[in-house]
Structure of Divalent metal cation transporter:
Amino acid sequence: MASSAIGPGFLTQTALFTAQLGASFGFVILLSIVLDLVAQLNIWRVICIADKPAQDIANQLVPGLGYALSVLVFLGGMAFNIGNIAGAGLGLNVLLGVGVGQGAIMSAIIAIGIFIYKEAGKAMDTFAKTLGCLKILLALYVAYISSPPLTEAAARSVNPTQFSFAAVLTIVGGTVGGYITFAGAHRLLDAGLTGRQNLPQINKGALSAIGLASVMRILLFLAALGVVSAGNVLDPANPAASIFKLSAGQIGYKLFGLIMWSAGISSVVGSAFTSVSFIKSFSPVILKYNRHIIIAFIIIACAIFLVVGKPVKLLVAAGAVNGLILPLALGTMLVAAYASKIVANYRQPLWLTVLGVIVTLTMAWMSYGAIIQIIKS
């Protein structure tokens, strides 16, 4: 889940909003971390207690709801995957000097290879963990050498001078929106870590995944803040690359290429797996050809990117789109937590439910505002 969250959109959104909000973006990050934790704990616990994927829970709750949720998550996952492919292509463009389109095709082939491999599940987990550690270490290095104003960052994180609802919606959507929060929960189902006896591990997994993603977000924010505070202007065509190039020169630029590619390729894998997991229980045919459908999902995402282009806009838009899905997904799981036909005699802690309702209403309100803004524009 953490590796899926720390994708190219994650890097691009963090750079873009730091440039817009400065040190006050720290407040948005802290707020989003709270929202992320509440959403993920609620969703993971219900899915693992019910021992069913989210779409089956939704269908059992209200016939047809699971299909609606699946379509939204699947389309949102496709939006993310187009951006992920784009980000991987950008990474190889920086790292190897190949065209962005060529880099996207090469990355798609590597991602497909992971699923062709018979031990795909183990390979996917190892791959995600290795690249996740690499991304955090490289971000730590760049955050250190960019010398950010830590005092100002700390002050504005609790007392901001600027705020953006769009930033919160996009950041939360890019961390636990759409398919991302389900990436970990559905992997736990596959691993058999379900039931009340496994709640400690489920809680630990949910918290550590958000923790890892948050550490990466904070490091990138500090790196970007150091660059912006020094009077530099980030390149709007590739704001995340600017952070690394301006703070560490050509070496930093190549490091960015490595981070961007690893973020892209690991998110392509996570997005494809989780998006298809939402439709595989609907038909024995889909279940039988699950791997083939995942491969087709990656190929289609790559083809759409090659036709559409505009990688940076795609990366930011994907987070916002998936933020719109979260209120429905979380709201469904909150109701399911009190349906005995789904969770038997289990009851979600009241404090977690109350916080979950607050997050659902908050994200629904922000989503409504974002839709109105889009219509007016």
Notes: The CA atoms of residues 135 and 259 lie 5 Å apart. The mean pLDDT is 84. The chain has one domain: 2-376.
